[in-house]
User: Which sequence fits this backbone?
């Protein structure tokens, strides 16, 4: 059975999806019935859809509700990875593992309970939607927002928090950065006294993000920055209401998650940057990938670097006090002259410049041995990328990071390519610039703005010539 809505609204525009549903019906030979939720139309209008009934009609059908008993590792759902490292993975997770992980996260680590009003701004294509729905396990009331977080302006979610008496406000580091850039002050404009915590994930939240939340939103907040992945639909590094908060840091490793920072030889590191690994099983690790013969892609994705040990693909530093700092994807690390730098550190410097709204940096080995490091920037409306601004950006990187991480070229782009969950697509762009065919490097269906790829294809052609 296929459940679908007839369309949706976003950014003040209406999108009819019935033609897409019809394509899905044709592509699914085993599909017996489609349940359509009238969302744009007040009345049920199937159009050209076949074997389709309305949601309300289905609810009137007689039938006894039966709860099937299944094994612990019975498949629960298929989640698709965001596409930040290339083509999305079709990840199959199990009933028992997800139940344990989400109960642990929500009840023990986030302290959610009956009567709390739990919100995380997410699309249904991001694992945080699955995590949000699990709030029902602890009898929390779920708050759902459908639409753009920036329409009509970036105050809309803060107004939503006020109007719903929200207890916990979950969002992404990208959204917090956008609010900072827009210079809004939600704490002065809205009554947020019921908001007890604000969660951030999706990418590292820099110290400036922490300061903005405490200065411009609310001073008495629990602010957990968390890091995990669609791969386990859970967090590796999490927050705890029992521990202090340090700007730019994730409070602690998740309960039951044996997380380490490994060097190249597989030795654990403290207060040094290494590969994020998990050395003991986590209940919600994937059962398998869909259509992955012999588990080949599963093995290559996680166990090809350290045999028998899960390598997640992030740079992490575990501090002596047990907190952690994430430095971005290890497979998109800038490695110039043998000096490695996580992209998040570079973004933090670049995007602190008022004229810069967004940015993307990659480092690639060209065929003739030269290391090429371009920086792509999105500027505020009316700002030009002139020689003075180029010199300002390069100077700030040279003085704040190192001379090794000054880009070879700074290029103006209208948008940074992002996944449906808002993550920067560093690795796919790096693959494109290295000459990997577009069909093997990136999935347009996994992008929120697939039109941005054409620009990078043109850059790749110039590099080849």
Assistant:
């Amino acid at each position: 059975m296929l459940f679908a809505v007839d369309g949706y609204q976003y950014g003040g525009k209406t999108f009819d999806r019935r033609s897409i549903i019809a394509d899905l019906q044709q592509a699914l030979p085993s599909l017996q019935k489609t349940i359509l939720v009238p969302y744009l139309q007040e009345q049920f209008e199937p159009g050209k859809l076949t074997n389709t009934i309305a949601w309300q009609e289905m609810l009137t059908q007689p039938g006894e509700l039966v709860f099937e008993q299944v094994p612990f590792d019975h498949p629960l759902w298929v989640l698709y990875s965001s596409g930040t490292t290339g083509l999305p993975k079709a990840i199959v997770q199990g009933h028992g593992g997800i139940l344990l992980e989400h109960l642990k996260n929500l009840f023990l680590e986030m302290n959610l309970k009956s009567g709390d009003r739990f919100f995380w701004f997410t699309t249904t294509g991001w694992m945080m939607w699955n995590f949000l729905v699990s709030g029902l396990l602890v009898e929390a009331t779920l708050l759902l927002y459908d639409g753009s977080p920036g329409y009509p302006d970036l105050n809309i979610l803060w107004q939503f928090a006020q109007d719903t008496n929200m207890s916990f406000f979950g969002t992404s580091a990208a959204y917090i950065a956008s609010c900072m850039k827009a210079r809004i002050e939600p704490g002065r404009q809205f009554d947020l006294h019921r908001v007890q915590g604000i969660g951030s994930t999706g990418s590292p939240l820099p110290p400036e993000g922490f300061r903005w939340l405490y200065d411009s939103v609310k001073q008495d907040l629990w602010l957990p920055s968390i890091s995990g992945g669609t791969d386990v639909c859970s967090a590796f590094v999490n927050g705890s209401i029992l521990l202090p908060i340090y700007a730019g840091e994730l409070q602690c490793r998740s309960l039951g998650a044996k997380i380490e920072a490994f060097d190249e030889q597989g030795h654990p590191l403290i207060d040094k940057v290494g590969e994020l690994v998990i050395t003991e099983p986590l209940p919600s690790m994937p059962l398998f990938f869909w259509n992955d013969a012999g588990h080949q892609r599963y093995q290559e994705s996680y166990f090809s670097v350290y045999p028998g040990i899960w390598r997640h693909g992030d740079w992490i530093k575990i501090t002596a006090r047990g907190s952690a700092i994430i430095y971005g994807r290890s497979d998109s690390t800038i490695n110039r002259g043998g000096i490695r730098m996580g992209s998040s550190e570079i973004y933090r410097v670049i995007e602190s410049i008022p004229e810069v709204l967004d940015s993307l940096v990659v480092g690639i080995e060209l065929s003739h041995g030269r290391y090429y490091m371009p920086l792509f920037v999105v500027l505020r409306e009316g700002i030009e990328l002139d020689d003075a601004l180029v010199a300002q950006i390069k100077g700030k990187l040279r003085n704040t990071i190192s001379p090794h991480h000054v880009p070879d070229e700074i290029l103006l782009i209208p948008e940074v390519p992002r996944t449906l969950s808002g993550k920067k697509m560093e690795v796919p762009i790096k693959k494109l610039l290295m000459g990997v065919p577009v069909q093997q490097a990136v999935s347009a269906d996994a992008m929120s703005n697939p039109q941005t790829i054409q620009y990078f294809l043109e850059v790749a052609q110039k590099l080849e010539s």
Summary: The chain is about 25% helix and 25% strand.
